[in-house]
Amino acid sequence: MSLIVHIDTSLENAFVCLANNGAIVQTVTNAVQKEHASFVHEAVQQMVQSQLLKWSDVSAIAVTEGPGSYTGLRVGMSSAKGLCYALNLPLIVISTLDMIAAGLIDAQNKDETAKRLYCPLIDARRMEVFTAVYDDQLDIIEQPQAKILDAHSYETLLQEQNMVFGGSGASKFEKICLHPKATFAKTINLPAAMCRLAIEKWVKKDFADLAISQPFYLKEHQTIPSPSVGS
């Protein structure tokens, strides 16, 4: 049995969840970004207690490493590392882009005749997003990058293959992208996607080094300042 606590504060909406062998037991969310720091510690403690667990029952801590909100990434990483140090637990780090892409893949009907590419878009500022492109096996087609969106973004890839876009920056691209091979996901189950990626790393014992693990900012000191997403 593996009981893993998951922490994601990289985006506007934060969550912590507990999963047993990859299956979600409980999820707690927070939609007030400026309260992510206080939310994490209280939510994790209450979640473990509400399941009548002891901390000795927990197998590992998983956290999203970014990219995303600069402040949010620091909150999540420091919280996760603090728990791992205090409880002598292994740390699992998950790319926020990987998590969103996995959620996009999970949300699609599994049709072997309709191969697609998957593109997470994390809102940055103005028309900028943090993004990458994946195939349906979650292999990277385009490496993580900061991109300024315009109507021709991803045009070369869209000429060859259908693409599914999703994430906090997807609405910006949807307004300017008219390509018939582009579709936009409205809902993504991020906790389920994170749990799936974390249990895969747990099985492989793919743990992060506590001493050197740092958030993946993609752009140094990058925040996501917008009316709805502030750091």
Task: Report on the biggest sheet.
Answer: 5 strands, mixed
CATH architecture of the largest domain: 2-Layer Sandwich
Category from helices, strands and their pairing:
alpha/beta
Which bin fits the share of residues in helices?
25-40%
**Number of DSSP E strands:** 10
- CATH fold title of the largest domain: Nucleotidyltransferase, domain 5
Unreliable stretches covering 5 or more consecutive residues = 222-231
Count of separate structural domains? 2
Count of alpha and pi helical runs: 6
Distance between the termini: 37 Å
In terms of quaternary structure, what is this?
Answer: single chain
Which CATH first-tier class of the largest domain would you pick?
Alpha Beta
Strand content: 25-35%
Question: Overall 3D geometry?
Answer: globular
* Average pLDDT reading: 91
Can you write the helix and strand succession as a string? EEEHEHEHEEEHEHEH
Superfamily at the CATH H level of the largest domain? Answer: ATPase, nucleotide binding domain
Strand order of the largest sheet: 3-2-1-4-5
Please tell me about this protein's structure.
This protein folds into 2 domains: 3-95 and 190-204, Nucleotidyltransferase, domain 5 (2-Layer Sandwich); 97-184, ATPase, nucleotide binding domain (Nucleotidyltransferase, domain 5, 2-Layer Sandwich). The protein contains 6 helices and 10 strands, in the order βββαβαβαβββαβαβα. It has helices at 36-50, 70-87, 96-107, 155-160, 170-174, 190-204, and strands at residues 3-8, 14-20, 23-30, 60-66, 91-95, 116-123, 128-134, 140-148, 162-166, 182-184. A 5-stranded mixed sheet has the order 3-2-1-4-5, with helices on both faces. It has a 5-stranded mixed sheet with strand order 8-7-6-9-10.
